[in-house]
Amino acid sequence: MDRRSFLKNAGIGAGAVAATGALAAPAIAQSTTDMVIVSTWPRDFPGLGISAQRLAARIGELTEGRLNVQYFAAGERVGAFDSFDEVASGNAQAYIGADYYWKGKHPAWAYFTSVPFGLTYAEMDAWIKFGGGQELWDELADGFGLQNFAAGNTGVQMGGWFNKEIETADDLKGLKMRIPGLGGDVMAKLGASPVSLPGGQIYENLVSGAIDATEWVGPWNDYFMKFYEAAKYYYYPGMHEPGSQLAFGCNKSWLMKLSKTDQQIIKAACMEENAVQMAETNANNGIYLDKLINEHGVELKKFSDEIYDSFGEASESVFEEVVAHSDLAKRTHESFAKSRSEIGRWMLLADTGYTEQRNRVLGITV
């Protein structure tokens, strides 16, 4: 699929070039530092890809060219799943991606993207900033020579695309489904065969029948993937990624050599994009859900309580295995679970309590 038109329409590519060309003479004259950023997302891809490109351009803009940023989408310099090693080794200076891709290196990485029955965007933001999440993330990343920052979020994801109806948990048995992270481990507990694929390879595998189902993000991102051409049943809500935190992972040794100002600029740019991407996703998901249903005949389905209960039982089994892995994994899970309970109780009273009543009074339904 040709996605280059999306970036052109958004004006991002032109904006980045214009920003470079508009640097004042003194800024150009000062010394510059090369910064290679690799990504797990396809170039010009709506949502995830454009967010990554926007962040890379913003870092160059805010540093007034002191950082000579070169951005490479998935497959342009290294494969999507090779981004971590490329940065940890020092061959590149940063990656933009989802840290649950690295759970094979340490299961605690999954918590800093999203885990089954995990945190929503608001809850994740609170845990990272005020619940000890960033400190645990720092400890984990430091063991690999990295420094990581929150740099985007896609909110509560859809449960996925299926080529058949899922009426009971037994319908998941034998299903080949693209689903990474601990969510994939949950599906494996229920008899499915989880497959980990980068975004650019999902469509071809779904159309060919190599996989029977896939999760991705939500209506806005999924619309452009054209999954509806191979699977008509679109399930919600996703238990696997209720607030998918995206990451900007820096080579720590390189980062610490920068001026304090440029270190803070990188952090600030990540914080800005973290908020912008979530707002952009929320603004578009409802629009594109209508398009999927009305223009392409997609059938919106809700997982039954029985299926969700099965998800819950399987997730507890997965968490037991994670906690047994190491002290850091145990402390990460305990911190996450504490925030999930404390913040979740407040969200139930405040956000959930209010939106349920508001939608009831106004007649807002799915």
What's the CATH topology label of the largest domain?
A: D-Maltodextrin-Binding Protein, domain 2
Report the helical percentage.
Answer: 40-55%
Strand percentage lies at: 5-15%
**CATH homologous superfamily of the largest domain?**
Bacterial extracellular solute-binding protein, family 7
What is the count of β-strands?
A: 11
Mean pLDDT: 93
Spatial extent as radius of gyration: 21 Å
Straight-line distance between termini: 30 Å
Number of domains: 2
Along the chain, the helix and strand elements come as HHHEHEHEHHEEEHEHEHEEHHEHH
Major sheet: size, sense and barrel closure? 6 strands, mixed
Q: Output the strand order for the largest sheet.
A: 7-6-8-5-9-11
Shape: globular
The total of helices stands at: 14
CATH C-level name of the largest domain = Alpha Beta
CATH 2nd-level architecture of the largest domain? 3-Layer(aba) Sandwich
Low-confidence runs: 1-28
| Class from helix and strand fractions | alpha/beta
Describe what you observe in this structure.
The chain folds into two domains: 4-154 and 243-283, Bacterial extracellular solute-binding protein, family 7 (D-Maltodextrin-Binding Protein, domain 2, 3-Layer(aba) Sandwich), CATH 3.40.190.170; 160-241 and 298-337, Periplasmic binding protein-like II (D-Maltodextrin-Binding Protein, domain 2), CATH 3.40.190.10. Helix 2 (12-21) packs parallel to helix 4. The chain is of the alpha/beta class and 366 residues long. 50% of the residues lie in helices and 14% in strands.
